[in-house]
Design goal:
heterodimer; A: 309 residues; alpha/beta; Rossmann fold; 2 domains; four-stranded parallel β-sheet; 11 helices; 9 strands; B: alpha/beta; five-stranded parallel β-sheet; 26% helix
């Protein structure tokens, strides 16, 4: 297979396992490209991409922008603060105005779940979802699964533990879809107040004892406690959370095996993961960031291949 | 489809020996020279030539492979996208003599893409081109090889296929043409 089955990347749930494999194989090639002395290829030199960020982002935005530039695409950036969105313009109007300036692809982050799907149905452009509310964050899931494949040599059959705030996390949802499509086994761990009600219907087992969960898994993905979304008191205090569900070196050393530790960033050091782990050899946090650029290049390249002129 | 053998096993062998000796004449001990096979079809030829160079007494032959997929000028103009292959250039290309190796030179577009692609690894002092078959009447660009196994006059509708022992049981070059 050398072609994606979809025209947009709206979420992992719309992808076939073969699509994900194709993205990984293409990302392998781009990973080699971004380690060259000159890290640029001319494939997308006639493509213009708009990065629309209606919600804050540092790493995803930077990673997409680098991926676009490494592919030689022209890039325009838009962030909601200081734009006409605050004057009451609708999403479709905003995007159509940008597309009128001859933009071929749109990378969008939006606080509302389903915003990317909605946009793909209403405007004539390729849409890449860079996170829509608590729904999906497909490129993060792709880079996480790619990092597992790189570290352990495979994804099928791997036991992956996702720890923390599953309720507010688009990363968790996309990761669950992606890992399950590739044949991995996924469990989640965290306080019951941060577990969505439907979670078991996805075929995911919930664990509340982190030590037992760590014994079970081959790799652990520690999610960030989203302090900005804690409008309710989901747990008594950060200190109590980190004692129950924070990963410390002491906890890790009690295990009689080595497991790679992942984190989608940004890290709250001392809350979900202690500094000594984040900076240790157990952590594959920085390789994840590097793989983010390669997998995003693969996604943009494969979607651009479907643009007809 | 009619098939005609342009080079049989013995003729391929003779051509490879001649090319090996021409390379040694121009590059001596290969201390500043690198063989770069163009993916996918130049790789087997590169392997063969480096073996033969070793047998001919050149001990240190550095060889790599270059994939030009992302540098092609027909991205999004083809019906089927092309999947990329591995690039493996584990050495510095800066100020080296680079010899591109491919099986058949047809339009010259792959070679143009390769000239772009190699610049990502530094600035070679010189770039040469070796091909087993030169279809000299089919060029779209002003590109000429430095080392040629055999010149073939063929029309665009015909195909020239290089077979290798490792994949097809014997070394030979075939001309395939539609029977009207």
């Amino acid at each position: 297979m050398s072609d994606l089955s979809v025209d947009h990347l709206l979420g992992i749930k719309y992808l076939q396992p073969e699509d994900i494999e194709l993205i990984f194989e293409t990302a392998d090639n781009f990973k080699e490209v971004i380690n060259r002395p000159i890290k640029k290829v001319p494939s997308l030199r006639d493509i213009t991409i708009a990065n629309l960020f209606f919600e804050n982002s540092t790493r995803t935005k930077l990673s997409f922008e680098l991926a676009e530039k490494r592919l030689s695409a022209d890039v325009v950036n838009f962030s909601a603060s200081g734009s006409s969105v605050s004057k009451g313009e609708t999403l479709i109007d905003t995007v159509n105005n940008i597309l009128a300036m001859k933009v071929d692809m749109v990378v969008m982050r939006h606080p509302n779940p389903g915003a990317a799907v909605f946009l793909s149905q209403n405007v004539n452009s390729r849409i890449v979802n860079a996170g829509d509310g608590a729904h999906e964050h497909p490129t993060q899931a792709l880079l996480d699964a790619y990092s597992i494949r790189e570290k352990l040599g495979r994804v099928a059959g791997v036991k992956v533990l996702i720890v923390g705030d599953i309720l507010h996390s688009r990363v968790a949802l996309s990761n669950i879809f992606c890992l399950q499509k590739l044949g991995a086994e996924v469990r989640v761990c965290g306080p019951s107040t941060l577990m969505p009600k439907y979670i078991r219907s996805l075929g995911v087992e919930v664990m509340h004892d982190l030590d037992r969960a760590l014994e079970w898994c081959d790799v652990a993905n520690m999610l960030r406690i989203q302090l900005e979304r804690q409008d309710h008191q989901y747990f008594p205090s950060l200190r109590e959370y980190s004692m129950q569900y924070g990963l410390s070196m002491e906890r890790l050393e009690r295990l009689n095996k080595e497991i790679p530790i992942m984190h989608p960033g940004p890290i709250n050091r001392g809350v979900e993961i202690t500094s000594d782990i984040a900076d240790s050899d157990h952590s594959i946090i920085l390789p994840q960031v590097e793989n983010g650029v390669a997998t995003r290049m693969a996604v943009l390249y494969l979607l651009a291949a479907k643009i007809q002129r | 489809m009619s098939e005609r053998i342009l080079l049989n096993e013995r003729e391929v062998d003779l051509a490879l020996h001649r090319l090996t000796h021409q390379l040694i004449e121009n590059h001596g001990d290969f201390s500043n020279s690198i063989l770069i096979g163009l993916q996918p079809r130049g790789i087997r030829l590169t392997e063969r030539l480096s073996e033969m160079l070793k047998k001919a007494g050149v001990d240190q032959v550095r060889s790599g492979s270059l994939d030009i997929t992302f540098f092609r000028d027909d991205f999004r103009r083809r019906d089927e996208p092309i999947s990329a292959n591995k690039t493996n250039i584990p050495f510095v290309v800066e100020n080296q003599n680079v010899i591109f190796i491919d099986d058949v030179l047809f339009t010259g577009r792959s070679v143009r893409a390769a000239l772009d692609a190699i610049n990502s690894f530094g600035r070679p002092s010189k770039v040469e081109l070796l091909v087993l078959v030169d279809r000299r009447l089919s060029r779209h660009l002003p590109i000429q090889p430095n080392y040629i196994g055999r010149i073939v006059d063929s029309v665009a509708s015909e195909r020239v296929v290089v077979n290798w022992k490792e994949e097809n049981g014997s070394d030979n070059v075939e001309l395939l043409s539609e029977v009207r």
